[in-house]
Amino acid sequence: MQGWDKLWALKSRLEIPIEHIKAVRADPDIAKSPGKGIRTLGTYLPGVITAGSFRQEGDRVFWNVHRPENVIVVELHDERYAKLVIEVPEPMVAVATINNALSARAA
What residues does 83 pair with on adjacent strands? Predict the structure, then answer.
């Protein structure tokens, strides 16, 4: 996270080992949906920013999104968060990179 996002999310850094990633996908619709869950720590201004920790269906989910069209969802296991819903500059490139790393690890 960079700049003001550290303040809005109340977090400056997340490090997730590749072996804790179950799946990744580009998903602009998730950020447009109204059901973010219950905010436990962070910032939510509809249509502007969703950043921080939220509870969704009993799971903890981390969000850091300004632009829904740039969102990826990273599903995790053995981590504090069940999912990361984050904005990246090039979602398809990020998804391909992570999936390639997952495939290489499985081989």
Answer: 61, 75
| Number of separate domains in the chain | 1
Separation of alpha carbons 61 and 84, rounded Å: 6
pLDDT for 38-49, tens place per residue? Answer: 666 778 878 888
The dihedrals phi and psi of 13, each to the nearest 5 degrees, come to -160, 145
What range does the domain containing 24 cover?
5-106
pTM: predicted TM-score of the whole model, two decimal places? 0.84
100, 47 contact by CB (below 8 A): no
CA distance 85 to 72: 6
Alpha helices (H) in 1-107, listed in sequence order: 5-9, 28-32, 91-106
67-77 pLDDT tens trace: 899 999 999 99
Position 9, amino acid = A
C-alpha 89/C-alpha 15 separation (Å) is 18
Query: Average pLDDT in the 32-57 region?
Result: 78
